Structures are given as C-alpha cells and as structure tokens.
Amino acid sequence: MTLPRAGALLAALIFLILGFAPAAASAKGPPSAPRTKAEPASPAAPEIDILTIDGAIQPITAQVIVRAIDGAEKHDREMLIIRLDTPGGLDTSMREIIKRILVSRVPVVVYVAPSGSRAASAGTFIAMAAHVAAMSPGTSIGAASPVNLGGGIADTTMAHKVRNDAISYIRSLAAQRGRNVDWAEKAVREGGSLPESDALKMNVVDLVARDDDDLLRQLDGRKVTIGGETRTLHTQNAVRHAFTMSWRQGLLSKIVDPNVAYILFMLGFYGLIFELSSPGSILPGVVGGICILLAFLAFQTIPINMTGLALILFAMTLFIVDLKVQSHGILTAGGIVSLVLGSLLLIGGDAGMARISYSVIGTVVVATVVFFVFVLGAAFRAQRRKPMTGREGLIGERGTALTDLEPGGRVFVHGEYWEAESSEHIERGSAVVVDQVDGMRLRVHKA
After folding, report:
1. By three-state DSSP, how is residue 270 classified?
2. Is 194 within 8 Å of 188 (Cβ atoms)?
3. Which of 162, 237, 252, 291 has CB atoms 3.0–4.6 Å from 264's, for a disulfide?
4. CA 348, CA 302: separation in Å to the nearest integer?
C-alpha cells in the first residue's frame, strides 16, 4: 500500500470517528460525577389481578378463572385474588379450576367477599385449593355434600362412591394447604357450614379481612409455597388490576343461567308454534329457532333431567291438541300439571347452583296458559269460522226468490240481486239457500 493511499484511509477513519463522537456523546448524556458507591434502583410497585366470581360454578366460570391465572403468569403478577360468592356448581368445572390453581406459578388467593357472600359446595373445594383462603365478616363456607341430578342425596352404591371420592379429594386439598382436614371431611359428609369467625378459629381459612385494603395489609410478608418453593408476598402499595371476562364469556355466562335457559327454551317453542299456526310470518320462526338453539347450548353446560324435558314437551303437545279437540279443558289441565312438574325437574345438579326460580316458573306457566288458551285458541277459531265476505261468504246464505225459479230466475241474497237457478221448482217469494256460486250466477235450493 502506498503512503498517500494509507494517508487517505487514515483521514477517512478520523473523519468517521469525529462524526460519530457527538452523536454518541449526546446519546450517553452529559458526563456525571463519579460515584463512589452503587445506588440501588427503586423497586417497582407490586401488581396484582383481582377477579370477581359471583354466581354458580359452571364451564364459563372455569374458562374465566383459567384465563385469569394464565394472564397473571404472563404478566408476572404478585398474585391473583378471586373474590368469590357462589352457591356451588358443577363438579367437572370445579375440578378444572382446582387443577389450574394447583399448578399455578403465581399465588392464588380466594377471598369470600363481600359481606353476605358464601363459598358453598364447589366453592368450598376451590377455597381449600387456594394458596391463601380468606373471608370477610358476615360470610360462610361449607355445605359441600355432593348431590345427584335430581337435586337430592341418593342412598345408593353410586352415591356412596361419589361421596367417598369427594371426601378424599377435599381432604387431600386441605392437607396440601395445611388446613383443617377433619372439618373439610365433615363439610362433605354432613354438609357442615361455618361463619368466618369459626372458620378462622378452626383453621379452615387463613385470615379474615374487612375489605381489599385490609386483605392486602394482612397478606404483606406472608409466606406461601409455590411449586415446592417458599415465596414471600409483597402487597404494600400494590397496583391493582381488575380482571374482567370477555364479552363472549359474559354473554355465555348469562345464557347458561338456568332461568335464562328455561325462558329461552319456552320462547323458542312459542315462536315455532306461532310460525306453524300462521305460515309465512317468518319472524316468529326465526326468533324461535334462535332461542331454541341458544337454550340447547345452555343445556350442554348444565345438568338436564331428561324426564323434566319430556314433561315439558308433553305439555306443549297437550296444549296444541286441546286447540283442535273438544276436551272440555281436561287436556289443558293436564298440560299445566305436566309443564309445572317438568319445569321443577328440568334442571338437576347442585340444589344451590342449578334451580329455576319459582317466580320464573309461575310466570312462564301463566303466560303459556294465556298464550295457548286465548291467543292461539282465538287464531284457530278464526281459521275455522265461516267466511263472511266473497264467494265463500255466500255459501249457506238465505235469500228470497223474486221470481219463480223453473229452473232459472232472480233472487235477493245478502242485500244484492242475483241470477239464480235451481234443480227444483221454487215459487216467487219463497226462501232459498245458496248452494254454489258459479261466476255471477247462484245455485240455490228451497229453504
């Protein structure tokens, strides 16, 4: 390499260094005085998620809780607090929730709140599975006996198996969290229940807190075990994030409510029957079909007693038949009885979770009777009523012969003069009855 060429490269290198130096200096900022000791950075405030569950434990509830735990792990939250108020729910959904809590990488706190709430049946199991179980004043926990689809406790071999399985499950959960194993068994075997003060004394729950602030104050510094490792909770000045379900989950959670599912089911039948009785209406059939499909969607997620469903279908059949058969009200009375019994038996499972309100049943029964007896009854009677206008309206009408009919002549019928003929001789002034309308000519016979 020649000297001039090397000098040119050196000059270019110096130019690049001088050109980038100001940018680098501005990026680093002005020089600061040297520090003799490293200054620790201020720790970020802990963040927690709070999820509110108010209602029965069902598949949508399980989806929401699993999604909340997933989100807490993804965002590295300090903990997830589940504010719980439930009368119970489905065993399958409860176990799905518990399995997710047991493998959670963030602490899960189940807080039975606000005052007046309860963690009954499936809620007791979920509270036992939580890393920390808390209650607010005026709440209760317990009544965890499993029930069959009819809503009662059946004294059968299968019922004993289900009960023993539930006892072993809740004992395992209580032992894993260091809680009162004997009372947990009693809650399942005898349906025992406790208020918050007794639950705290008997080591069923870990603490009693007035509100969220009091709960976070008591949780600060508490140690929990996550994945076999002990972790200390830091909740002082924690930033709270309310976790809400998606619009889809919110809609589905409303649909799977037993009362809503029952009303949708009945409205669907009303729409389909109205469409069948008045073909071409379109709208009642479309709305009825949508309601029926939504009801069946709900029936897939809640326990359905097939006997109750059959009784409701039988009641609808009796109502429809009574519109066409003169039963003097016997079929209607049978339909009412069948509808009431079917409504009471339709939803099975936990008596606290899946029961249709008596007021809803009463309202639907009264509305159904009115709908069939008065509305559809009037429609069917109108269809069977003799036409009053047009050609059909003249059939069977009485009139007067204005001339002798032998066989043709003139008659006065329905306020009008008509040409008429008869197969028999009819004298002038005689009463006649219309048999047939043939264009602008009537066929009559002597009255």
Report:
1. helix
2. no
3. 291
4. 8
Element (H, E) at 240: strand 239-243
Nearest of 223, 222, 131 to residue 177 by alpha carbon: 131
Report phi then psi at 384, rounded to 5: -85, -10
| Amino acid (one-letter) located at 134 | A
Catalytic machinery residues = 121, 161
- Residue 324 and residue 201: Cα distance in Å, rounded? 67
Q: Report the C-alpha gap between 187 and 174 in whole angstroms.
A: 12
Beta bridge partners of 412: 400, 417
Are residues 312 and 342 in contact, defined by beta-carbon separation less than 8 angstroms?
A: yes
Of the candidates 247, 298, 301, the one whose C-alpha atom is nearest the C-alpha of residue 64 is: 247
Find the distance separating the first CA and the last CA of the chain, reported in whole Å: 137
